[in-house]
Amino acid sequence: MTIPQLRGLLFLTLTTLVQLPSSAAELRTWTTSDGKFETQAELVEANDSAVTLKKADRNVITLSISKLSKPDRDYVLSWLIERKQSETLRPGIVPDVLGEQVDLLSMIDPANDTQAGKWERDANALVSSRSSRARILIPHSVSGSYQLRLVAQRQMDTGSLNIGLAVGSRHQALAIFDYGRSKRSGLAWIDEKNEPANSTFYRKPVFTTGRDSEIICTVHHSHLRVTCDGKTIFEWTGDPSRLTLHPNFKIPSDRLFIETVLGSYRISQLQYLPIRESELRQYKPRGKPSPADSVALIEHPLGHGSGFLAAPNLLVTNHHVIENAPADDLKIFFPEESDFVHVHGVLFEDVDRDLAILSLETRRTPLAVAYDGYVPQGESVQLRGNPAIGGGVTLRNAVVKGTLRSMVRVDGFDFLQVDASIDSGSSGGPILNELDQVVGVIAMKATDEGEKLIHEGLARLDDSFKNKSRQQTQDGIAFGIPAQDLAKALDSVRAMTAKEAGRRAQLHESRVVFKRLAALAGIRLLEANVNVPEAMRQQAARVTATRAADDLVELIPAEPARLLRSALQSKGTQEIIALLQQNMDKHLNTIRSSPHLSQSSIRDFNALSQRIEAIERFAQRPGENYLRFSTTMMRFQREVTRLMTEIKEEL
């Protein structure tokens, strides 16, 4: 067996033993400050006053922290800090801390505040009359970051609602909803371009006639996001000096306003909430969104791929690009930067959709996302990524032109089909329309197996099955995850609490550790089989000839076993094993202290790592008795299978 074949076997072990979305347990010596008590145990729980310890015999004891030796108290303190950090990990956009709500609706006097057309009171609501333009100024000064919330109802099937927003201390923007016959929405004016010509263009109707809808405009110094009934309609990030109002508007720079065009709207709620604290206050992006600036190369020891910023500090990629790497192993390289950016955590994983979202910290400007997901057939698109072209060469931020062919549906999921030639390594990069909006995420390169592999084999395309996919390539066809699915994923990340973000990040780390343990278990069981002496093979031949083989392990024949043993001992294989074992103690310690896993799952992780060590020792000395060997191997296989099944149920 050649080294490439063995690599394929190891990755096959990794992906077939574990169909998912460390050393032994750390027994340390605990002593009391007076030296009268000492025990070997692992720490399973702690608070400010006591620790819970589990000894090797599985007996659990509780000790007061005040009675522990100083080294033990320091160890517990570090353990508690690590757990606290895992609970408070935050997404790239943290939940805003809102100040006291101001009821703007009660402040408005239509007689004094109307600038154009006609507005009037209807009970506790504000209603515009149908006219070419009805505008009312809100008599309240705003500054800094804030949220504007309003509940609006369209009274007839025609007409748009516009909201004037103050941005920073000197700039203004106009949010437009359902304008014209096409009912388009977006932000005007950006770089003196209105919504059909800038990256906030949204093509689907927002309002339903006769039904209330809640609009929330979140405004920071350099970032705007507008939602309707919890769904993002458009988002913009950039230098606020690029925002202007049309010269016909004569509005003070610190004031908000509402207007309707060729229609009537009923405003039943209107509130202003200052944002007292947010990481976005310090967020100062570099210029306007640019694919050349915001598409990144993702590298880790087991592979590489592409990704892109789709919101401040949130990087999008394919799930298969990062699924086998803990956050510490992921290195994000942006153009024109030699140093990599660290990943804080993996906050979103969708195996079926092959989509992942990572949290990091960068001042680069995210790309705009086409939240309506609309891409007309035949539209020109641009694909960006970091393809591998062979010989260890990777092209950075390569651009490929293409044309949208159609939408295909596979196993209940829609994929964009694009006429474009791409190479492996581009997975996770953006598909962009002519406005440089993200309309899709590159998912795979078409092969003869093509659509079947979209759902069940994406991870193999970029790495282990690279050569195979090149042989089978149908030139000029690529697939992408539609922007609508990306938009839903981004909104779900924004809605996360800090605790939920920490739980998601910890689950990713736990899955990676589990997969690595599963691969190591398969390797060690294989080692035990190929290491048996020739005398045992002769015994096996005699025994299997006279009794049922249900409780016997089938031995690999001598010559294949010799080749496998040589391959397992080679430098290349040992490097792979070292990668699987890298930082295992650290990862297992994090799992042991995680507040997001059950105690039974933590125990199973510890037990699985112990079994793998036991199998490794057994593989070095498998003995000479075939029946005893079979009994031991069958026991190991049952225990490993049981533990893996139990862990998978929680992960």
From TrEMBL:
Q: Which GO MF term does the entry hold, naming one?
A: serine-type endopeptidase activity
- Show the Gene3D superfamilies listed in the entry: SLA1 homology domain 1 (2.30.30.700), Trypsin-like serine proteases (2.40.10.10)
> Secretion signal: which residues?
1-24
Q: Give the enzyme's EC designation.
A: 3.4.21.107
- Please report the stretch or stretches of sequence annotated as the SLA1 homology domain: 24-77
* Broad class of enzyme this protein falls into: hydrolase
Q: Which domain of life is it from?
A: Bacteria
Q: What are the GO BP annotations of this UniProt entry?
A: proteolysis
Q: Do the record's keywords include Signal?
A: yes
Q: Which keywords does this Swiss-Prot/TrEMBL entry list?
A: Hydrolase, Protease, Signal
Presence of the UniProt keyword Hydrolase in the record? yes
UniProt similarity note: Belongs to the peptidase S1C family.
Q: What is this protein called?
A: Putative periplasmic serine endoprotease DegP-like
According to its UniProt entry, this protein's organism is: Stieleria neptunia
Upper taxonomic lineage: Bacteria, Pseudomonadati, Planctomycetota, Planctomycetia, Pirellulales
